[in-house]
């Protein structure tokens, strides 16, 4: 009860504190919002009044000028000189007013001396002439072409004595005067607030934002939607104050028309500045709440902790005794007694809820060796480490325990859509992880037996025994890190495997093993360079079996050594036979597993086979998988050097499909690097495979190795390999593996294929132009075709371009950056992986720093062209590149 009290009460108090604070902050937020609305409205009204006050004397002056003109027109003789002086006097009364003139009903300006001007086409004249506007007319913002300054025209109409339209009186007003007058020092606003004066067409007459008067946007038209946001806070006739987004800032915006003037006033208060004090209040209150929450938690948890200390020592002692009786003292895991009890409990639960239970019997390998050689202290360290690892990978509510010695037990619930094999693999990975013991690294491994309730037993004892039997079956396989399930068919499968192993042991004395030979051909000349020997088992019971059916079983036993020696001696004998027929140049490659190669007798047997059949050592090539460097790299490299001293050639097989250890590869004294068929078969349709093959070929050549590609099945793949610089090829396109008697016809041929098949169809350099505009493609091709000796290929999108890149050896690619579906930079980046030497040119209409950086770093672009393309510049780029190409060839 005290425990729940110590948790619930402080939580209630903490929620209460935060609730009060939240209510206060919500009310405070509303007050800041109301204050901002009021400030924006007041400032807008002040702006409107100031604007009206500014234009009132201008209107009075225009009315006075109208009176003067009408009085003068009423006289018998019009005195223009007198009238000009009167207008000039009126003009000087208003600061900033210029060119107070008048025009007749046809728009001809009558005042101003020699000034000849007609204003009949102006909007203000038309409006006053039509009689639609009897008030002061104000034009939109106009720019003086001579001074480049903005100004307004203010005008009023006058009438003749007969009441007809007589003309207009007008004056100009520089907008700079308006900005200085209205935005001088009348309002205190922040640097992120805005003030705008707009005319009836929403053109800007004056602006103040970014903390200064802005003359750059005079005349710029605004959209009505710029001032009407998504959250309307208040609404009244002709007034909207909104919480909106304007020039990427949220604002409280006042927007209204100025009475009696064709102007609008806009006041926008930045929301971040409005709520900045409120956020400081939030931070302060949140900090106080945290302190109060910490204080409340400390008080109640201290009380709970003091109560827990009152547990009697006798109860603690009894708990300790019970724990020691049910747990292993070394690893602290449940012991056999507790495990059996928990297994029975899980079985009862499984019976009720209809799920299965898997029991994993785990046995460590090499534990006895470590215990005997390094001592019991290190043995205990191993057990503790394995116990920790197993505890980490076992899920809750699964169980892990130690039975004794080097045996552990895991009990896992298998419910719907679960997979116990996944757990087994995690156990094996745990056992395979290296251990650091006494300054050395040790890899234990282990064997796992699995039994499942209810199939294999209905109580803990039976399941435990079934899992132990399965574990012993895994042990007998003579390979570490094995998993076996307890199955009724286990005995039958074991017998079948033992029968296959027994017959495999009899295969060599019964002459059932045969060697097939697959030719290896030089890509440049088409001539035969040698063969790879591939083993087959011609069993009278199973038929002709490929190596994948029986070599794994052989590698699990000592049979692999006998098979390896048989392959070695048989291949050397065959080399001798072919040499005696006059083919002294012929060589044969044999495969050798890591188990064979790391055997200390390997060099002795190879040397004996060479001497026995009296063949040149260089005619024998040993193919090794790169993975053998992971087992014992120092011993492997030492054996390689010994074979090289004999003169035997070495090849690295299956490069790239496993753990490619480049650090050891540079130390291998190999003569040949074989490209796996997995990559060869993707050359014509997969840019990534082509890039990998190209990289492996370059790596082989840089290490002074021959690059041999396996698995070439089509002429297209062979042509791609030839273009990438591969030296030799092997695959079904040349020939399938054949028995020795079918090799002689191949040896009698001058070439295995005509090398002209792999030569390019044209000796001219090829340039690919990629642009979705047919006009641009024709412009580039027709503009350069007669000026440079190259063949142009065209594509309108990235997919078509990639097809051409994969099927042609290109000299250059000219690509527009804006392509449908994929950008030019992305296309050139893929082309860079496939053909690193191709010249890459990018066309872009709007180059920017980010685009240039990506094009150079990501795609390796060498030249940039802006639209419209300068053909002379492009021609110069291609010619210089062609000169470099010719110099490289020479």
TrEMBL record:
- EAL domain sequence ranges: 497-751
Q: Which PROSITE patterns match?
A: EAL, GGDEF, RESPONSE_REGULATORY
Q: Which residues form the Response regulatory domain?
A: 766-882
Which residues, renumbered to this chain, carry the PTM 4-aspartylphosphate? 816
Name one process (GO BP) from the record.
Answer: phosphorelay signal transduction system
Q: Where are the transmembrane segments?
A: 6-25, 282-304
Cite the entry's keywords alphabetically.
Answer: Membrane, Phosphoprotein, Transmembrane, Transmembrane helix
Task: Please name one Pfam family that this protein belongs to.
Answer: GGDEF
Q: Domain GGDEF spans what residues?
A: 355-488
Protein name (record): EAL domain-containing protein
């Amino acid at each position: 009860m005290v425990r729940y009290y110590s948790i619930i009460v402080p939580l209630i108090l903490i929620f209460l504190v935060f609730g009060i604070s939240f209510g206060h902050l919500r009310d405070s937020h509303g007050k800041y919002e109301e204050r901002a609305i009021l400030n924006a409205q007041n400032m807008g009204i002040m702006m409107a009044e100031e604007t009206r006050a500014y234009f009132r004397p201008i209107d009075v002056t225009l009315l006075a000028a109208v009176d003067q003109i009408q009085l003068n027109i009423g006289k018998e003789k019009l005195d223009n000189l007198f009238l000009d002086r009167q207008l000039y006097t009126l003009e000087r009364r208003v600061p900033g007013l210029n060119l107070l003139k008048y025009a007749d009903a046809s728009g001809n300006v009558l005042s101003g001396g020699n000034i000849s001007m007609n204003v009949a086409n102006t909007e203000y004249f038309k409006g006053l002439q039509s009689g639609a506007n009897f008030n002061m007319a104000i034009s939109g913002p106009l720019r003086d072409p001579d001074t480049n300054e903005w100004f307004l025209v203010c005008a009023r109409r006058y009438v003749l004595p007969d009441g007809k339209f007589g003309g207009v009186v007008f004056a100009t007003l520089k907008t700079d005067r308006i900005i200085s007058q209205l935005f001088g020092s009348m309002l205190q606003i922040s640097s992120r607030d805005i003030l705008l004066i707009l005319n009836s067409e929403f053109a800007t007459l004056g602006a103040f934002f970014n903390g200064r008067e802005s003359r750059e946007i005079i005349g710029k038209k605004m959209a009505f939607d710029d001032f009407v946001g998504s959250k309307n806070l208040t609404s009244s006739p002709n007034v909207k104050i909104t919480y909106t987004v304007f020039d990427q800032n949220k604002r409280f915006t006042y927007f209204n028309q100025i009475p009696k003037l064709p102007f609008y006033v806009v006041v926008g208060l930045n929301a971040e500045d409005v709520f900045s004090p409120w956020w400081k209040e939030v931070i302060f209150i949140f900090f106080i709440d945290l302190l109060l929450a910490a204080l409340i938690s400390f008080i109640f948890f201290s009380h709970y902790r003091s109560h827990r200390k009152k547990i009697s020592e006798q109860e603690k002692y009894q708990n300790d005794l019970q724990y020691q009786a049910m747990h292993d003292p070394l690893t602290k895991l449940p012991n056999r007694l507790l495990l059996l009890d928990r297994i029975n409990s899980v079985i009862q639960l499984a019976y009720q809820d209809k799920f299965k239970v898997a029991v994993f019997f785990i046995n460590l390998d090499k534990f006895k060796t470590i215990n005997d050689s390094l001592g019991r202290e290190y043995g205990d360290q191993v057990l503790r480490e394995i116990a920790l690892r197993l505890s980490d990978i076992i899920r809750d509510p699964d169980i892990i325990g130690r039975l004794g010695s080097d045996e552990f037990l895991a009990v896992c619930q298998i419910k719907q859509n679960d997979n116990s094999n996944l757990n087994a693999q995690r156990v094996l990975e745990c056992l395979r992880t290296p251990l650091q013991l006494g300054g050395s690294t040790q890899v234990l491994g282990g064997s796992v037996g699995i039994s499942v309730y209810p199939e294999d037993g209905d109580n803990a004892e039976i399941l435990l025994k079934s899992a132990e039997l399965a574990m012993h079956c895994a042990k007998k396989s003579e390979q570490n890190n094995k998993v076996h399930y307890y199955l009724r068919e286990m005995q039958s499968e074991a017998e079948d495997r033992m029968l296959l192993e027994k017959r495999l042991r009899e295969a060599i004395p019964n002459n059932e093993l045969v060697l097939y030979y697959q030719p290896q051909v030089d890509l440049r000349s088409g001539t035969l360079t040698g063969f790879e020997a591939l083993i087959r088992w011609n069993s009278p019971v199973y038929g002709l079996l490929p190596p994948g059916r029986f070599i794994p079983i052989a590698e699990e036993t000592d049979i692999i050594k006998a098979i390896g020696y048989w392959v070695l001696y048989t291949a050397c004998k065959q080399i001798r036979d072919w040499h005696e027929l006059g083919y002294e140049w012929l060589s044969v490659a044999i495969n050798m597993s890591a188990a064979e190669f790391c055997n200390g007798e390997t060099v002795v047997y190879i040397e004996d086979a060479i001497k026995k059949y009296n063949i040149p050592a260089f005619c024998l090539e040993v193919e090794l998988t790169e993975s053998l460097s992971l087992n014992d790299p120092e011993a492997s490299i030492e054996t390689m050097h010994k074979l090289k001293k004999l003169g035997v050639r070495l090849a690295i097989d299956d490069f790239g499909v496993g753990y490619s250890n480049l650090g050891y590869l540079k130390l291998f004294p190999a003569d040949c690097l074989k490209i796996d068929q997995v990559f060869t078969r993707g050359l014509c349709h997969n840019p990534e495979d082509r890039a990998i093959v190209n990289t492996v070929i370059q790596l082989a050549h840089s290490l002074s190795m021959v690059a041999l590609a396996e698995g070439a099945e089509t002429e297209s793949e062979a042509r791609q390999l030839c273009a990438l610089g591969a030296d030799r090829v092997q695959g079904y396109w040349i020939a399938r593996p054949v028995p020795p008697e079918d090799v002689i016809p191949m040896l009698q041929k001058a070439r295995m294929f005509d090398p002209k098949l792999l030569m390019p169809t044209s000796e001219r350099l090829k340039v690919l132009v990629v642009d979705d505009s047919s006009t641009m493609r024709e412009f580039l091709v027709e503009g350069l075709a007669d000026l440079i000796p190259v063949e142009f290929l065209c594509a309108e999108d990235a997919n078509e371009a990639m097809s051409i890149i994969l099927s042609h050896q290109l000299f250059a690619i000219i690509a527009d950056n804006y392509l449908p579906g994929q950008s030019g930079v992305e296309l050139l980046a893929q082309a860079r992986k496939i053909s690193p030497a191709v010249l890459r040119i990018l066309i872009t209409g709007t180059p920017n720093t980010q685009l240039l950086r990506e094009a150079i770093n990501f795609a390796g672009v060498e030249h940039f062209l802006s639209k419209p393309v300068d053909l002379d510049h492009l021609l110069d780029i291609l010619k210089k590149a062609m000169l470099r190409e010719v110099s490289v060839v020479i």
